[in-house]
Amino acid sequence: MNLAELNRAEIEQALTGLGLPAFHGRQIFRWIHHRGVTTFEDMTDLSRTLRTRLAESFTLSSPSIQQKQVSTDGTTKFLLGLDDGRRIEAVYIPDTPAQTFCISTQVGCAMACAFCLTGQMGLARHLTAGEIAGQVRVLAQQTGLMDRPFNIVLMGMGEPLHNYEATMKALRMLADEHGLSLPLKRVTLSTVGVVPGLDRLAAEPDIPNLAISLHATTDAARDRLVPINRRYKLEDLIAACKRFPLGKRRRITFEYVLLDHVNDTPDDARRLVRLLNGLKAKVNLLPLNEAAGIPFKRPSDDRVNAFARILADRDVRVSVRKSRGRDIRAACGQLLVERTGRPEASAPQH
Ligand code: SAH
Fold first, then answer.
1. In DSSP terms, which residues pair with 286 in a beta bridge?
2. I want to staple 331 with a disulfide (CB 3.0 to 4.6 A). Which of 246, 249, 288, 289 is the partner?
């Protein structure tokens, strides 16, 4: 049994199952999630006998750093190896103004959005809760942020609501006061809009910030760009957002990838305003990060600004996402790990 997969209560149970005192569970959880140790041997406030016993009975695994690339803007992309040899990417984005980690929830993704490289990989497998929390731990350690505040965005590879259990378990482990103490208000979960998942999330006692990848204003366009829309139509998605409980002052972020002459017309902007009417919303425009193999173009700055202007003039809060780490292909939609062969070597350049 891999203790990095267990929450504190589960570690306590595992200990009592071996006839060991449960109170060591808290220490062990702390060593794993707050101190980031990777062997039982390093848990130096446990007796030598206990450490030996733990090492005989359990394993402890962490994503391993296989490659680290630093962008000219300081954004750092980590290629992480998992126990079964699969690889994922996670990104550190400094000073936005917060320190932010962009974390993956799956190896690949099943959603197949038309403009996203990860989508072209298909889904290899879900990540486990330990692997999701492990990325945060490894990045916090690598960037010296173990004891300092940071945000996480679930905007790496994968669709978090398609891996609901593991994602939520990881968030609760990260929030544990004996772990990283990462409050859910510092977490943003980004989703294509899996409606049953949204309703499930709405019923949780503690809810992260929510970002919806909208990207289109008609079902015809969204069916093509975000294929899950064929199952959950815009009307259903917006209705789910309307019934989603938001704390005071919180808003749902609507992400909107701008594709040149596809979804970036003034009519789209006006339809977007109407669609969001009555919602506590803010819109984050993402001018496409282009890549070979993605059949769309990034609009000109003028088109991006014109689109943003229409929203702002109608009192919709809007921002344009500044792409970080494009030179190392760490930007949105650019996370791609080849299934076989050398990491990155054959990924398309742009
Ligand atoms: N599956 C989740 C989270 C991962 S993607 C979701 O779809 O929300 C994080 C964001 O990056 C999404 O809004 C996604 O649509 C966007 N994105 C994907 N490919 C992109 C690209 N090539 N350029 C800009 N943004 C992209």
1. 257
2. 289
At what angle are helices 24-33 and 129-142 packed, to 10 degrees?
60
Q: Provide the b/e sequence for 241-258 (b: ≥16 CB within 10 Å).
A: beebeeeeeeebbbbbbb
* 340 pLDDT above the threshold of 50: no
Q: Is the pTM of this model over 0.90?
A: yes
Q: Are 164 and 118 in contact (CB under 8 A)?
A: no
Mutation test residue for ligand 1: of 195, 257, 297, the one with most atoms within 8 Å of CB: 257
Rounded distance from Cα 49 to ligand 1 centre (Å): 49
**Would you call 159 a catalytic residue per the annotation?**
no
- Phi/psi-derived region of residue 301, left when phi > 0, alpha when psi is between -120 and 50, beta in every other case: alpha
Q: Where are the alpha helices (DSSP H) in the chain?
A: 8-17, 24-33, 48-57, 117-121, 129-142, 164-175, 195-202, 219-225, 234-242, 266-276, 301-313
Atom of ligand 1 nearest to the CA of 291: 22
How many beta carbons lie within 10 A of that of residue 165, not counting itself?
Answer: 11
Q: Is the CB of 192 under 6 A from ligand 1?
A: yes
| pLDDT tens track for 33-60 | 999 999 999 999 999 999 999 999 999 9
Contact assessment for residue 284 and residue 319, using Cβ atoms and an 8 Å cutoff: yes
**H or E segment and range at residue 87:** strand 87-93
pLDDT in tens, 70-102: 999 999 999 999 999 999 999 999 988 899 999
Query: Hey, what are 159's tokens?
Result: 């669709």
Is 332 considered catalytic here? Answer: yes
Question: Which one of 89, 131, 159, 290 is the catalytic residue?
Answer: 89
3-state secondary structure of 213: strand
Going by the DSSP 8-state scheme, the letter that residue 235 receives in this structure is H
| 8 A C-beta contact, residue 71 and residue 79 | no
Q: Counting beta carbons within 10 angstroms of the beta carbon of residue 65, is it exposed (0 to 12), middle (13 to 18) or buried (19 or more)?
A: middle
* Digit-coded pLDDT (tens) for 266-319: 999 999 999 999 999 999 999 999 988 899 999 999 999 999 999 999 999 999
Q: CB of 254 closer than 6 A to ligand 1?
A: no
